[in-house]
Design brief:
By secondary structure, this protein is α/β, with parallel strands linked by helices. It has one domain. The strands form 4 sheets. The chain has a 6-stranded mixed sheet with strand order 3-4-8-5-1-14. A 3-stranded mixed sheet has the order 2-13-12, with no helix packed on it. A 3-stranded mixed sheet has the order 6-7-11.
Length: about 290
């Protein structure tokens, strides 16, 4: 996953209708007052030698951790180095574990039964319901598995992970701002970039991007990502509201889509996701940090 500067390229646009990570990803428990989750940053010497930059990344990590009460530690290796302007502002490698659809769904349904704010998980489609009307590009097929980010595997109590959960590299080919106010028009806000990349580490990624990169290949069997359980054609949202389990999910590059969990907009600040934190592009002179860009 990469955050790129606001160049005139074309990117698939996904509309995050609801900012509730507790339901929209399903693995984490929202905390309104007491933080239990820890995001441990493991900086390289290059980043550690720049305390202002490290502090900006740490603020982003603390902001994400402050939303959740899962008693887990998420480990992220973090670097800051020159990668060339063509590579974008930052790049993240996420470590995944692959499980069967049923094993992940069973954990989510069990989680929904014990948390009153996650009852939508009880309505997640069975494997048969999910595959019956799944929208895929022509020639593609679903192999019945879910690729789960290591951080989410921890939150679900699934086995198969060890070491760091992800690695993030920030590109010093661009000029960054490390502070909290007065962002110069010619610089990029490092905390915003870190918020974006850590969001991917926590599960805000769709297999649509993977399909998009290999769109010209056919006959491929693919796994979905957890977020795809809530990935609908925007045109189908009214159907999802009345039949969440049976409304087809969409894994289609270029088709207007929405991440939606069928719940009202509560508990999350308006604009946290819609305010550009997880958009794939950003521009210099912009703060996002959970608010609309300034």
């Amino acid at each position: 996953m990469a955050l790129v500067p606001d160049y005139p390229f074309q990117y698939r646009k996904v509309n995050f209708m609801n900012g509730r990570l507790t339901a929209a990803v399903g693995f984490f428990v929202l905390s309104l007052s007491l933080r239990a989750m820890t995001i441990q940053l493991n900086p390289t010497p290059d980043l550690a030698s720049n305390p202002d930059a490290l502090a900006a990344v740490q603020r982003a990590a603390d902001a994400w951790a402050g939303f959740f009460s899962n008693p887990i530690t998420i480990d992220i290796n973090v670097d800051m180095r020159s990668m060339g302007a063509w590579r974008g502002l930052a790049s993240t490698t996420i470590y995944y574990n692959t499980y069967s659809y049923d094993s992940v769904r069973d954990r989510l349904v069990g989680d929904g039964a014990t948390h009153v704010d996650k009852t939508v998980l009880l309505s997640l489609p069975t494997l048969d319901q999910f595959t019956t009307d799944l929208y895929l590009p022509s020639g593609w097929s679903y192999n019945g598995n879910i690729r789960v980010p290591a951080a989410d595997s921890k939150a679900l109590g699934l086995s198969g992970f060890g070491g760091a959960d992800a690695s993030i590299a920030f590109n010093t080919s661009f000029s960054y701002y490390y502070g909290n106010a007065g962002l110069p028009a010619t610089e990029y806000d490092l905390q915003t970039a870190a918020m974006h990349e850590i969001g991917h580490v926590l599960g805000f990624s769709s297999s649509v991007d993977w399909v998009d990169n290999l769109y010209d290949y056919t006959g491929l069997g693919m796994a979905i990502y957890p977020l795809d359980l809530y990935h609908f054609r925007t045109a189908d949202l009214s159907l999802a509201g009345s039949d969440f389990a049976n409304t087809p999910r969409s894994i289609e590059p270029g088709v207007a889509a929405s991440i939606w969990d069928a719940l009202p907009h509560t508990q999350w600040r308006p604009g946290f996701l819609t305010g550009m934190v997880l958009r794939p592009v950003t521009g210099n002179g912009r703060f996002t940090r959970g608010r609309r860009s300034a």
